[in-house]
Write a structure and sequence with these properties.
The protein has a single domain, classed as YbaK/aminoacyl-tRNA synthetase-associated domain (YbaK protein), CATH 3.90.960. It has 5 helices and 8 strands, in the order H-E-H-E-E-H-E-H-E-E-E-H-E.
């Protein structure tokens, strides 16, 4: 069977697991890879556009946090939710070796290794949210329930 080159590894994993999603493609601005810009370019409201941040906990090691565009990660809240005393964002140069993804294309799905995922609990307010599909300019629209199923994520109050 030929490999579908139009799909990311994350999309292939969702397909394998029978999870429903919609792919949204847009032309990324390499000078502005923010979730806020992706929201503007796609018309997906910022409160439904989730960015994935890779964080290192002092006790647990690497974890991933998904928060809405326009909001900041609350490091203290994430530390408490994840059982750490403190957490810090990993340097950009470590992103690809840790996840297999590049900045602006990081997904909590189908990375190089599975890490604990924490999603801002505000996602529960929406029927579907948008999350990166594993490449710059490619997003999923997916239900929170399905995202939690595939990632094993925990919902927590981690954005300010």
């Amino acid at each position: 069977m030929a490999k579908d080159r139009g799909k990311t590894n994350a999309a292939r994993l969702l397909d394998e697991r029978g999870i429903t999603y919609e792919l949204v493609r847009y032309e990324p601005d390499l000078d502005d890879l923010s979730a806020e810009r992706a929201s503007e370019d796609t018309g997906i409201p910022p409160e439904r556009m989730y960015k994935t941040l890779v964080v290192r906990g002092d006790r647990t090691g690497i974890i991933e946090a998904c928060i809405p565009a326009g909001r900041e990660l609350d490091l203290k809240a994430l530390a408490a939710a994840s059982g750490n005393k403190s957490v810090s964002l990993v340097p950009v140069k470590e992103l690809t070796p840790l996840t297999g993804y590049v900045r602006g294309g990081c997904s909590p799905i189908a990375g190089k290794k599975e890490y604990p995922v924490f999603i801002c609990q505000d996602a529960a307010k929406h029927e579907k949210i948008s999350i990166n599909a594993g490449a710059r300019g490619v997003l999923f629209l997916i239900s929170l329930e399905d995202l939690v199923t595939v990632t094993g994520a925990t919902l927590a109050d981690i954005a300010k």
